[in-house]
Each structure stands twice: as structure tokens, then as C-alpha cells.
Amino acid sequence: MGLSDGRTFFRCPDFVFLKIAPGAFMSLIVILDDRISNRNIFARLATSIEEDVTVHAFGDPQEALDWLAHQTPDLVITDYKMPEMDGADFIRRFRELPSSIDVPVVVITVYEERSFRLRALEAGATDFLNSPVDHHEFVTRARNLLKCTSSKNYWRAAPSRWNANWSIASVHENGRCAIPVSVWHK
Predict the structure, then answer these.
(1) How many domains does the chain have?
(2) Using alpha carbons only, what angle is made at residue 153 by residues 148 and 155, rounded to the nearest 5 degrees?
(3) pLDDT band with cut points at 50, 70 and 90 for residue 28
(4) Residue 89 is part of a domain; what is its CATH number?
(5) 100 falls within a domain
(6) Segment (H or E) for 141
(7) pTM here?
């Protein structure tokens, strides 16, 4: 059942699913990489994900953290190996910010060692991309994570629009958010 604002209802025996239309919210993506060439490539890729994407790129982790203290992005993409502060330290400090608890963070790394990935995961990383980055994989992973964030943001922004029977849910595939949906409980 389609609605005039782009939402679509799907019915099944126990739930009604509400799929949020792409572009319902303007997405804000933060990119952190000490190499300007990588920042430019990742920013170009990020703007190709969907319409109305805003990208803020930083070369210095502390500068990014200072900016993030006053802004809440929908997605953060960070390099792991940087001077001064590595990706895991950046993520740990980012997760200390009040509004960052559920912002997805993708780490780009050349490291194959398990210890680097575990360190980033323990700091709060959501996903990884191997460097050199496959452009199609970058866009696809970022788009999927933005869909999850968009659904959560939709319901946070307007909880009074719906009665108490509505709640946020996500359909998971192999432990990752595959399709963000909202559920009406009968």
C-alpha cells in the first residue's frame, strides 16, 4: 500500500512493515583520511550514493572530533592508519560523544591482521573495507548503512506521528542490518 509521502506498507500475519523511501532525509557523511587523494576519492564516491548527500572530509582526527562534538553524522568513514591518532583511537573518542552511540563507522584498512580489526571493533567500528577500496563495494556498503540510519532517524524525528503500537525494528541478514523497517504490533 503506497502513501503520498513515499512510505510503503507491507502486511504479513503478525506485523505491518513500513519501508522508508530513499531520500526521506538528507544524509551527512564524514570522511576521515590523512591523505588528500583518498579524501577526494571517498568524497566523490559518497556523493554518488544518493541525492542530497552532504560530505565533510577531514585530514586530522582531532579536527574531525572537534566538529563532530557539535554535529551528528549519519555515517563515518575513517582510515585506520593515520599519524597522531589511529582509526581505533579516533573511534573510541568518537563513541564518547553523546550523539554518536549508534552512528555507523566504516574503517578502511590495509591491515589483514585480526588484531587490528579486533581493536577497531572493540572501539566501536561497524564495518570494514579493505584498501585499496573497491568503489562499488564502498557505495553499496555505505548505501546499506545509510538506509539503517535513515529509518532510525525517521522514527526519532517524529514519534508523535504514530500511536504507541509502532516501534523500530530491523530485518537482519547474517547479523547485519539488511532492511530497516518499522513495525506496527497488533
Answers:
(1) 1
(2) 105
(3) very high
(4) 3.40.50.2300
(5) yes
(6) helix 135-157
(7) 0.70
